[in-house]
TrEMBL record, chain A:
This is Probable sugar-binding periplasmic protein. Residues 1-21 form the signal peptide. Keywords: Signal, Transport. The keyword Transport applies. Gene3D superfamilies: Periplasmic binding protein-like II. Part of a binding-protein-dependent transport system for a sugar. It comes from the Bacteria. InterPro entries: Bact_solute-bd_prot1, SBP. GO terms for cellular component: cell envelope. Belongs to the bacterial solute-binding protein 1 family. The keyword Metal-binding does not apply. It is found in: Cell envelope.
Automatic annotation (TrEMBL), chain B:
It comes from Nocardiopsis aegyptia. Residues 100-318 form the ABC transmembrane type-1 domain. It is found in: Cell membrane. This is Glucose/mannose transport system permease protein. It is a multi-pass membrane protein.
Length: 421, 329
């Protein structure tokens, strides 16, 4: 009797385990909802997203908004989660991604719907700069709706450190930058150029390349098979090496925030970082034009090296109709003017209302520049011009360079990375 | 017992009384049934785990190996069999040998350091320190902390800033006028990984201490007494009597620390993030799979990791099995 009880119990346990191991809950796509996936879970990003969600719910009271945001620095966790969901054919209704080549893997895998009809319908070709649409197109089609623009080529500097070093105003060319770095080194205790961990060096590299090669030659670098083994590139990299000589020894142990803070605290003279640093300076309570000031990174005046957050429409989105109304909202002038002042970025649309940005000196100047029809260059580090593989190859090359300081090997590795694409 | 076999006809007749057939079943069938009853429950009890283990550990290892032998370099590729191409190609990169080198430096320093420090602490406690339980808990406590948390603290302690901006341990050195000790810690290109092993040593030497302490306590007092009577010094007692008995403990410690060291990931990410200067195979695999999205290459790195861990674990398993057999267990 006892042993029979045991066998029954064991069998039941076994069945239960197998069942729970194999059974998977299916997601019900029936109800009226829209699920939007992003990595905006903190700070201005979250505030901006919440404002958009509120607008969406006001305009679509019957639709439940599901905010599927995944926390984690610049989306690395979120991207792993997203990859899993796309592969198991369980896509959200819309997800956030950096516009441009970073989405290329998804497009090639057939995860995204082309949005050309949507662009026509919403008049986005008129609202967005032509060069922007061209740079986010893949084989003639667009696959994402840009909601904002960030600028990558910003030189942040501390006016009083510059004054102490006898440098008047921000340097406009790379040669002037190197003179200024030398002056800061000689005249003050400050670090001439603050950088952080490896990725911020990648970020510095793209601004130096743009400043040294010029916008057209920079944009040409990202064509597959482009020639990186040129005298111009060698010169650009030599300049990069000169700039790197003025960075602090402990940079590898710091992230971009610490490098930026050094500028507003007067511990460093310069830092080249994207314009999200302006939001960080605000958080620190630093006063614009006094504790910190900005200019286009040397040699890039008149060019906007951009990156953009954008939303997509996955193939097989369970609630495609609602997803399209979401995309309409993020593409609209009203939506973008609500989101961007909170997030600390400017709208991708050229017809934004400057009044919304007047409270923030940086955003005001950035929007004025965006609307004055600048030349555009895509940021490689932030996924506009290169896919993940190429980007990773460049990052590895830069990392190895930081270790062995072999400039020729860096040039060779960059050239190779462009060839294999 | 012999009765049923001598009367086979009774059962096949079908008309006979049921009584005689029962013992016939009872002898063979019931024995079988008893045997089934004795092993079936336990089999049923473990079969789910055998099944799940088979599928999710060994099945996955097989799948990973298949992937590593294919050329599926994008998630959407089909991928065909290419043999060991991926395994060879990895060594032609600049990044992989550097990552392997980092892992080796880290492992040697970590295993050596944790073993030595753990042994020393165990020895001191075994010699009878006042308030031993307190020290035992104190030394064991770091084990309760995750590598991520350890990493966050040590990231600050090992800040590589030079003398004029020193923080963390460097600031401590400056404070005590030991400026020559100020160093770049884990950001040094050549032996930075040795510094990276310090937090790991801090975290696990307490565990090794506990292992050794148990080992020390396992040596019968009579043996030590006998050695002392024979005129052995206290050091001699440890060296000639206690230590030889600790070989199994040492081996277990090496296995546990060694395999943890080879697959180290979280500590590196917490201290250095993804930077080539502190690159190790596990971090490389993560970025290959989740950022570059190269399944075949990621699987290749994973296979190398598995082999490296197996190098530690398999000899241990063989050794334990042999030992158990020789002890007649």
């Amino acid at each position: 009797m006892r042993s029979r009880w045991w066998s029954v119990a064991a069998g039941a346990l076994g069945l239960a385990l197998v069942a729970s191991g194999c059974g998977g809950g299916g997601r019900d796509g029936g109800e009226s909802q829209v699920e939007v996936f992003s990595w905006w879970t903190g700070g201005g990003e979250e505030a901006g997203l919440n404002a958009l969600i509120e607008m969406y719910e006001d305009q679509n009271p019957d639709v439940e908004f599901v905010n599927a945001a995944v926390a984690g620095g610049s989306g690395t966790n979120a991207q792993a989660v997203l990859e899993g969901r796309l592969q198991s054919q369980d896509p959200p209704d819309s997800f956030q991604g950096h516009a441009g080549a970073e989405l290329q893997d998804y497009i090639e895998a057939g995860y995204l719907q082309p949005l050309d009809d949507f662009f026509d319908e919403q008049g986005l070709h008129e609202a967005l700069p032509d060069q922007l649409v061209e740079q986010i197109s893949y084989e003639g089609s667009v696959y994402s709706v840009p909601v904002n623009i960030h600028r990558s080529n910003v030189l942040w500097y501390n006016p009083s450190v510059l004054e102490e070093a006898g440098v008047d105003g921000p340097p406009e060319t790379l040669d002037e930058l190197i003179d200024a770095l030398e002056a800061v080194e000689a005249e003050t205790d400050a670090i001439p150029m603050a950088v952080g961990a490896q990725w911020t060096v990648d970020h510095l590299l793209e601004s130096v390349l743009l400043g040294s090669l010029g916008t057209e030659a920079y944009n040409a670098l990202w064509e597959p098979g482009a020639d990186w083994d040129t005298p111009e590139m060698a010169e650009a990299l030599a300049t990069f090496e000169e700039v790197m000589a003025y960075t602090q020894e402990e940079s590898a142990a710091e992230d971009w925030q610490e490098a930026a803070r050094r500028v507003s605290d007067g511990e460093a003279a310069f830092n080249i970082m994207g314009d999200w640093a302006a939001g960080y300076f605000d958080e620190l309570g630093a006063i614009p034009e006094e504790d910190y000031a900005w200019a286009a990174s040397p040699g890039t005046e008149g060019t906007y090296m951009w990156l953009s957050d954008s939303f997509t429409l996955p193939v097989g989105a369970p609630h495609e109709e609602h997803a399209r109304t979401w995309l309409e909202l993020v593409a609209s002038q009203e939506g973008q003017d609500t989101f961007n002042p909170l997030k600390g970025s400017i709208p991708a649309r050229e017809d934004a209302e400057p009044a919304h940005y007047a409270d923030n000196p940086y955003l005001e100047s950035a929007l004025a520049e965006w609307q004055s029809d600048p030349q555009l260059a895509g940021s490689f580090w932030h996924g506009v011009t290169v896919g993940n593989r190429w980007k990773n190859d460049i990052d590895t090359a830069v990392g190895l360079y930081l270790q062995n300081e072999d400039l020729d090997a860096l040039n060779e590795a960059l050239h190779q990375a462009a060839q294999t694409e | 017992m012999s009765e049923p076999t001598t009367r086979p006809g009774a059962a096949s007749g079908g008309t006979g009384p049921p009584r005689p057939t029962r013992p016939r079943h009872g002898s063979r069938g019931a024995r079988l049934l008893t045997r089934v009853r004795s092993w079936l429950p336990s089999l049923l009890l473990v079969s789910p785990s055998i099944l799940l283990l088979g599928l999710f550990v060994y099945g996955m290892i097989g799948w990973n190996t298949r992937l590593a032998l294919s050329d599926q370099h994008r998630p959407i590729d089909e991928g065909s069999f290419v043999g060991l191409d991926n395994f060879v190609a990895l060594w032609q990169e600049a990044r992989w040998p550097a990552a392997v080198n980092n892992a080796i430096v880290f492992t040697v320093v970590f295993v050596g350091g944790a073993l030595l420090l753990g042994w020393l602490l165990g020895l001191l406690l075994d010699k009878g320190i006042r308030g031993e339980p307190v020290f035992r808990t104190l030394f064991l406590a770091p084990m309760a902390v995750s590598f991520i948390a350890t990493g966050v603290v040590w990231r600050w302690l090992m800040n590589p800033a030079p003398v004029e901006r020193a923080t963390g341990l460097n600031a401590l050195f400056v404070q005590f006028n030991l400026d020559f000790l100020v160093n770049t810690w884990w950001t040094a290109p050549d032996f930075g990984m040795a510094a990276m092993a310090l937090p790991a040593i801090w975290q696990l030497s307490g565990y090794v201490m506990a292992l050794f302490l148990a080992g020390f306590r396992g040596v019968p007092e009579e043996l030590r007494e006998a050695a002392r009577v024979d005129g052995c010094s206290e050091w001699g007692v440890y060296w000639h009597v206690v230590m030889p008995q600790l070989r199994p403990v040492t081996l277990s410690a090496v296995i546990i620390i060694g395999h943890m060291s080879l697959k180290v990931f979280d500590l590196i990410i917490a201290i250095a993030g993804q930077q080539i200067v502190a690159d190790v195979p596990a971090v490389y695999m993560w970025s290959t799979v989740f950022e570059v999205r190269d399944p075949a290459k990621g699987a290749t790195i994973a296979s190398y990791l598995l082999v490296a861990v197996a190098v530690f674990v398999i000899p241990y398993l063989v050794w334990t099995m042999r030992k158990e057999r020789s002890e007649g267990r």
